[in-house]
Amino acid sequence: MNGVSSDMAAKLELYTLLKMPDEDLKSLLFDIVRSTAIKAVLPRFKGGMGDSDINYKPNSDIVTAADTDMQQRIIEALQTYWPNVPVLGEEQSRGMQLSIFNASNQPFWVLDPIDGTSNFAFGIPYFCTSLALIYEGKVWLGLVYDPVRDECFYAASGSGATLNGVALDCTELKAPANLKSSMALVDFKRLPNDMASNLAAEPPYRSQRSFGASALDWCWIAANRCQLYLHGDQKLWDYTAGSLILQEAGGMSSTFHGLDIFDNTMNSKTVIAATHPALFKKWCECLDPFLPNFTVNEHDSAVRYFDPG
Questions:
Q1: Which structural domain range is residue 24 located in?
Q2: Residue list, annotated binding site
Q3: Is residue 229 situated within a structural domain?
Q4: Per the annotation, where are the binding residues for Mg(2+)?
Q5: pTM score, two decimals?
Q6: 162 plus 189 within the same structural domain
């Protein structure tokens, strides 16, 4: 009861600070992200990116003029309404990110202005903007916007998930709860070699895709477009909004160690996820020989999911 009571108190404090109910907040955030994407992202995508628009980070990841422009515009818009709520953006310096994350007793936004930048830069229509709100060590809100399809995925903790306002329930099975009937999203290049080799040689699922935008991947699982998910390395801005959306849609997820995806750190995370508890258990059992030392039962106790009823 103490945990529930503290969550209720934190939620009351948070919405009092934000000064608006969830539905109004949802509409405002959607308007901010959508209108900014229309101005800063879609014209560049449709027009094509030149070499002068693309730069490389020290880890060789691509960053474009659209990333930095989108980030700055959204930060300015958010701080117009909530000047005391800082924004942790992917394109900020590591020092600035840590100072925002480690500041005590304040909510903050986590923003990925363009997730799937390589897709965006090379004209592949699979990228998104991801925005989450963290307070008191918990992800309270998550929004992921796909400007190409004009799809807005949204979740508020304890209130379910939606796609363009329509409730999501990914536990409604399109096929029997078995791996061979499931579509999988698997990011092979970040997996341990033995795991990747085994999945390639003996795929346990119907078929596999890798689209290249982690936040949107989470949402496609939540929308039951694919049923299984596997990723070996995601940053804070890759998983905060998307993992909440999947959880609130009824899905299940954990790290390779059987732990919650968000643990109130900025550590990178491994990801196992599925649309349905039965599928999740079978997915973990299939991957078990290639995972750290834990039992499938540890997954059952570590992950939490919202039951849409």
A1: 2-167
A2: 90, 112, 114-115, 238
A3: yes
A4: 90, 112, 114-115, 238
A5: 0.91
A6: no
